[in-house]
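User: Please predict the structure of the protein below. I'd like the answer in structure-token form so I can feed it into my own downstream comparison script.

Assistant: Understood. Taking the following sequence of 305 residues as input:
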Amino acid sequence: MTDPNDAPNWGRVFTAMVTPMTEAGGIDVEQAQNLATALLKSGSDGVVVAGTTGESPTLTHEEERLLFRELAPIVHDAGGSLIAGTGSNSTNTAVDASEQAAQLEVDGLLQVVPYYNKPSQEGLYQHFKAVADAVPDTPIMLYNVPGRTGLNMSAQTTVRLAEDCTNIVGVKEASGDLEQIAEIVRTAPPGFRIWSGNDQDNLAILATGGYGTVSVLSHLVGGQIKAMYDAWERGDTAEAGRLQVKMAPLVKALFLIGNPAPVKWALNDIGFNAGPLRLPLVDPDESVQNTIRSALEVAGGQDLI
């Protein structure tokens, strides 16, 4: 599964991008464009838009399509890729959202494991296959995040989908289960890629045979994350390890409470106007804020602005 030529040229480092909002609570398109541009300049190869970090549970489908439509040209002009979050726990909704996004200039789709209704592994297979069949010319990245969905997608289901659906080209793995991830690496078809979905697991998944990351941390230290992957690529494993360890306190700080509240607050704190959160999310308390500031200093500051 190591041939990189079989998968889209999406790059290793994606940022799971926050959604900038106006003070009135609407989508701030201009700031979203500014943020996407800044992220690509600071080390990201692409952005994932309208995912969990983008507050997708509170976005309307019209707002999601607005973001895809307005951000795609900006991302492409900067040489990056845009993956659109179009997943749902309703298969019909996921199919419809994916079909509409595929008509825009997105480079791929992020499909999260259906949450709350807890289907069987066969149900997961049928769900993702239905989406893949509906958009056969659009690459799909699966997203396994049991901590959010209440359900783990097994390695066997992931590999079965990779084998049966040619446009399912990778998975964002946030299970934290390195044994499961190793099984995907060992048994998936050539070219199938694994992106880390947990920043604390970036180097471990890379060492296990993974490919890249869909990162929250890269909003603030994208250059360091890019440097870590570059160091690994050139065989400097000691430097890669040093950078992962250096960023560890910031990883912990950004997940003291539910993502994306800490990272959106941090962006505002360093001077990038990301705007407010939408309820039910609220800013972290003063203790968490101070921890984030200290951790960002340990990590080497920010490189976004």
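That's the full token string. The chain has twelve helices and eight strands.
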